[in-house]
Write a structure and sequence with these properties.
Layout (H helix, E strand, L loop, with lengths): L24 E5 L6 E9 L4 E4 L4 E15 L2 E6 L3 E5 L5 E5 L6 E8 L9 H6 L2 E3 L1 H16 L3 H19 L14 H13 L7 H8 L3 H12 L3 H18 L4 H8 L4 H12 L3 H6 L5
Antiparallel strand pairs: 1-2, 2-8, 3-7, 4-5, 4-6, 4-7, 4-8, 6-9
Length: about 290
């Protein structure tokens, strides 16, 4: 469930409160995910952005209220749970609550210029608003994951699939389903071997794609179809297995987290408990003492 900025549950497309002295709230951060320059979550009431331009692609969804913006002299806007706005780099725009709307709550991704081909800038100006419920849901899930904690492999996979869908929307000759390469079990096996070798280290799917001469979305599709699990979930499982052995050998949980590739003990604990039902410390204490 999406949460409001005070941490309380907030349904999608609820009515924003009238200005109360803290009408605008913002959270922004740069995750360790290739391609994402910034994540920006904001609740805006009684405020309008001046004309400006970004060096990045901006992909925007609205969780409450409605937004209006002028993009290259075009009057645009979105609201609702099926719409996505795409603003290309270098194009001047503004932003404000839609008429008769008390404000809006939005989630932005600022994506590197290389995320989409620059020849799609014109198409993004012409088709800045996209009605695609699946794309909107995929973006919401990605934001939820980015907010929950550091899972760069999972975020990278989700972002690659989102990029592929955006490319299809904006391309003048979008690919049809028959032109997309089918899953390749042999490539999936090669990726699994690579992930096994790097399970306790950091490897990006972009690096794996270059090594295996395939696109990231294709690697994700091939792996998931072949093994019934995503690359990210597979790596987490391998890391938890390694952590179990080290914990039983007497290594402290904080050291185990670092040794098997988790960011910290909290990151290890979250996944370890999900896989085993208990915390790493409890698991270590369960060893019989003779």
């Amino acid at each position: 469930m999406q949460r409001a900025f005070n941490g309380e549950p907030a349904p999608v497309l609820d009515v924003l409160d009238a200005p109360t002295g803290r009408s605008c709230q913002v959270r922004a951060w740069r995750p360790n995910v290739p391609g994402i320059s910034e994540v920006f979550h904001a609740q805006i009431v009684d405020y309008g952005y001046p004309l400006h331009a970004h060096d990045t692609w901006t992909v925007l969804i609205i969780d409450a209220g409605a937004i209006r913006y002028d993009l290259d002299s075009r009057q645009c806007g979105i609201s609702g749970c099926e719409w996505v706005a795409v603003l290309p780099p270098g194009v001047v725009h503004d932003g404000r609550p839609a008429e008769n709307a008390p404000g809006f709550r939005k989630r932005n991704l600022y994506l590197d210029q290389s995320f989409l081909p620059l020849e799609l800038v014109g198409a993004a100006v012409d088709r800045t608003t996209l009605r695609d419920g699946q794309l909107r849901a995929a973006l919401a899930h990605l934001h939820d994951g980015l907010e929950a904690g550091p899972e760069p492999l999972d975020a990278e996979a989700r972002l690659a699939v989102i990029g592929e869908r955006l490319n299809t929307h904006l391309s003048s000759s979008p690919r049809n389903a028959s032109s997309v390469r089918g899953p390749e079990p042999v490539v999936a096996l090669r990726l699994r071997r690579l992930l096994d070798d790097k399970a306790c280290d950091s490897i990006t799917l972009a690096e794996a794609a270059r090594m295996l001469d395939r696109s990231v979305p294709h690697l994700v599709r091939s792996f998931t179809r072949t093994f019934g699990i995503s690359p990210h979930a597979y790596v987490i499982g391998r890391r938890v297995d390694s952590a179990r052995g080290l914990l039983l050998a007497g290594m402290p949980p904080a050291d185990v987290a670092s040794a098997v590739g988790f960011y910290d003990q909290a990151h290890l604990t979250r996944h370890f408990k999900r896989h085993t039902s208990v915390t790493p410390a409890h698991y270590a204490r369960s060893t019989p003492r003779h």
